[in-house]
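[job 4471] stage=fold_predict status=RUNNING
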Amino acid sequence: MNRDVPDVDPFYINYGGIEIPEIGVGSGVELSFVSDDIPESIFDKYGTNSANLRLAITPKDGIGWTEVKGEEPYNFLDELGIGQFVKPVPKEVAAVSAEAVTVPLGSERFIMPTVTPASAASEAKYTYSTEDDDVITVDENGLVKGIAPGTATVTVSCGSVSTNVEITVTVGALLLGDANLSGEVDIIDATTIQRHDVHLLTLLGTALQLSDVDGDGMVTIIDATWIQRWANKMTAPEGIGKPI
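[job 4471] inference complete, writing structure tokens
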């Protein structure tokens, strides 16, 4: 049993241990131990929920947390077989949390939740919901899109626990004619107003206010025409493209 065993893969040690008593010649002893310190990488390496670990005898004071790559001698217990370890079941999620998110109007940002205890993170499944869909949208992956200036709340749930995350949608200067709230006025805004006029979409709130470029209290195809004229440097209401 006292032989050097070259190995091209790292040999991680000290997952657990037990002191071996004196063994008489021709006798044997059964050893077993349990460890909570087996790193996740052992299981990820083979893409499985179990891992076969080699067993070795080390000096009484131990080698410590090291990697033996065939350069150091140790006693390899292949006669005693290979120990199989089952990936520990994560602890139950006790709490979920996430930091507030700021998203520019028309842009997208992810909510990044965490759970307590951290040992449950690899198996945590999140769901996202909001009642403020006039301000934001949120998908099943926690991707938030800002659709109107303001604040909103997303509820993040994981199992039986949940938390509320504050979302703030920011916007730069509000420009007359910026129907799609992109931060600039262009031909796309004219198309947006046209789609609103034929009921393919509905402009609300700030977007509706900015679309009324002629100030008649209505948003119609005429406003779209004014923006087209302005984009082509033709005569149009003086305030188009300017902050309000």
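[job 4471] summary: The first strand starts at residue 11 and ends at 12.
[job 4471] exit 0
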